[in-house]
Amino acid sequence: RDHGCDWSSDVCSSDLTNILVELGYAIASGGCPTGPDRSAFIGVYGHKSKDKSKHRIYISWDGMAGLDHNPEIGIYNAQLFENYGVAKAIASIARSGFHGLGKGGIAHHTRNAYQVLWDDLCSLTDFVVFYAEPTGKHGRVKGGTATAVYIAVDHGIPIFNLYYPDVLARVEQFVANVKAHAIKKKESTDGSRISK
Predict the structure, then answer these.
(1) What is the mean pLDDT of each run of 10 residues along the chain (196 residues)?
(2) How far is residue 35 from each of residues 28, 96, 109, 131, measured CA to CA in Å?
(3) How far apart are CA 176 and CA 168, in angstroms?
(4) In whole angstroms, what is the distance from residue 67 CA to residue 17 CA?
């Protein structure tokens, strides 16, 4: 696998996903139909690259958000991995148990382990980009994203919470810089000019 980036947020853009794909990163997402999971999906599947198989959309079950297990295009039903029991244990430890959750909630939190640790639960993602309200120290956040964030922090993986204006501004500046560089590169190779 190439470098990895996990998407667990509510405010990510498909532009950033496109840039990361262009830079060679493999993208991991949770397959939710809204927010950054959707942006990751659009960024990966809208990218000009034909090979989508290195990217991972981890779904909690077949039919989730209209998606079914299809490794040829990078969609994986987490429950079909042989190490699903290990992923479930990792998620349970991250959450301090599954108290109050039904089967669906447990499945959603369990698939978060794959978003951060990939298929083998040993290949650490390079960083995690997400949006979630903080709940205290050490990167703790509200919601289901907390499971992925805790796993990342526990493994020393850098986290970027776009909830914080300074982090969001740095990411937006990165996207703007890469776009500006691409425009300059295009201008120098084909002579075209862009006016504003």
Answers:
(1) 43 70 85 74 74 85 93 93 98 95 96 96 91 79 89 93 86 84 69 43
(2) 14, 26, 17, 9
(3) 12
(4) 20
